[in-house]
Amino acid sequence: MRTLACTILTLSLALGGGCGKKGNTVDPDTGSNLVGDFSGSESLSEDDLGFDSEDGELEDDGSEVEVAALPELPKPAKPVKKCVTVKEGEGKNKKSVKKCGPVDPKPEISASYGARTLMGDFRWGMSTTDVFKLISREIEKEYQERQTKAGDDAMAQDSARAWRTEALQDLKANHIRFKAASKHRWGVSLIQFEYEDDAEEEMLWVKANPTLRKFYFFKDGRLWKIFYAYSPDTWPG
């Protein structure tokens, strides 16, 4: 049984080669088999996501996404020295060796800090529309940074605007409701085991950068899992 109360942030290394229940599939844009073919699937409409019907750009109605405050975490514990006895060598040369080094006495607290860093403003239970708004705000932030960097360069400014339009349109297109009748092909992708068809589940995904894709999963319209897929190029060698 999947519940919002017991979800975790999932990190995954996306390896090359074939994967899937029934065969291989590729991303139409990049040729990568990291994601499935979402063509023909039901997606959020422009009205659902707040797109202006005339120019296709995201309308800002001035409303802010309500981000719930999280309970304060205890301060991270200072490393402590811990010694363990290990066996080294083979056969008659095998001997016990005492090794000492710093360890984290409360790794669960350190893990909580790490998870919050990855989560940012996202909260379990957020609606699909709120998650869309948060992701689109990240796009807008990068767009402003690109325009600042462009300065008085007209071509660079046009390039930044084109990037923004494409990123927002891609985000709108990268939504799927997992219904078997839509004949989507995510069942032969990296996330094939992360969802269930016809169970009121849906997903938004985004290319965070050339080597990272983020998948936001929803159950009954509420965020319950985030899946990070890294390309092998993230860690050369």
**Which range best describes the helical content: under 10%, 10-25%, 25-40%, 40-55%, 55-70% or over 70%?**
25-40%
Q: Termini, distance in Å?
A: 39 Å
Approximate strand percentage: 15-25%
Estimate nothing, just give the exact number of structural domains.
2
The number of strands is 7
Task: Produce the secondary structure layout.
Layout: E1 9-13, H1 46-49, E2 80-88, E3 95-103, H2 107-119, H3 128-150, H4 154-173, E4 175-177, E5 201-209, E6 212-219, E7 222-230
Helix pairs in contact: 3-4
List the keywords.
single chain; alpha+beta; 2 domains; 5-stranded mixed sheet; two-stranded antiparallel ribbon; 25% helix
Describe the overall structure.
This protein has 237 residues and is of the alpha+beta class. It has two domains: 4-67 and 126-234, no CATH class; 74-120, no CATH class. Helices cover 25% and strands 22% of the residues. The protein is built from four helices and seven strands. It has helices at 46-49, 107-119, 128-150, 154-173; strands at 9-13, 80-88, 95-103, 175-177, 201-209, 212-219, 222-230. The strands form two sheets. The chain has a five-stranded mixed β-sheet. The chain starts with 8 loop residues before the first strand and ends in a 7-residue tail after the last strand. Mean pLDDT is 77; it is low at 1-8, 11-43 and 50-60.
Task: Summarize the structure in short.
By secondary structure, this protein is α+β, with helices and mostly antiparallel strands. The protein contains four helices and seven strands.
